[in-house]
Amino acid sequence: MREPGGLIVLLLTTKDEGDVLEENVRHHLAWGVDHVGVADNRSTDGTRDRLRQFGDRVSVEEFDDFAVRQTVRRRLLDRAQERFRGAVAWAGVADTDEFFWRAGATSIRDLLDAPADTVCVTFHQKLFLPSELDPPDGPVWARQTWRTTSYASPRHTSWVGGKSFYRTSWLREITHEHREPSVPHPWRGPEDGVVHHYMIRDEDQFVMKVKRLVSWRPRTGLSSKPWWHSLRAALGLRPERPYVSGFKMEWWMAYERGGEEGLRRYYRDAFRLTRAALPQLAAEGHVVEDRSFADFLLARDGSAAR
Asked: Which residue in 57, 106, 107, 263 is deepest, having the highest Cβ count within 10 Å?
């Protein structure tokens, strides 16, 4: 049924994150999103099985090459528009580990209640980090309650460009994770963090994420071709450095220098919030404990021990 103001679609990409994807979809469908389109980069962890419980409120397209994920998102949106006869008014672009929520808002519709000339609403994030204090079990949003306080925090190792919802009447293409350059309008959105981001869930997932950075390739040249990387692997050559910078390149260099064991040491000693470092980081205003989203989900959905 079409809601006042049109339907809202959320477009996600995923790969072998079925547990978090299930939590993501459950939350957003309960918080005002009408349909979720999932661009699945050939997951092998039973992702589709986890999504069946949501029925036709979720659509999925599998793809092989990470570089084409935005094209797949666009196709998912086009199919949703066709299915709902052009009733999709807003489309959001996000990842599996990103949850939209704001205290005091009743649904995502409250956050998109913007003047008619606003064609894009962009939201800041709260980056939650793993710590030695985290319990071993439960959904990531219940386990991780320590986050960075701002983009300026030295422990903030994620994007600063925001994540966006677009009026579909203006969204001609999807080429960017954060703010589509073909929609040339000023930033509009709240100053506080709305995207609850659980980028790294544990040590094993950190290792997997860094190894997969090879999927980030330039758009042109030999290094943009998947077959080139497959050939290098077949010849036993070291993977080329991925087309990344900043903190992701720092992660890759830890892997390049020390292999998987070196990467695990980096996670335990440099990335994870240690029990010894937390008090000083909190006193200096770099991190803070924030249970608001976890408490909201526990109150709404019940026990985290699903």
From this structure: 263
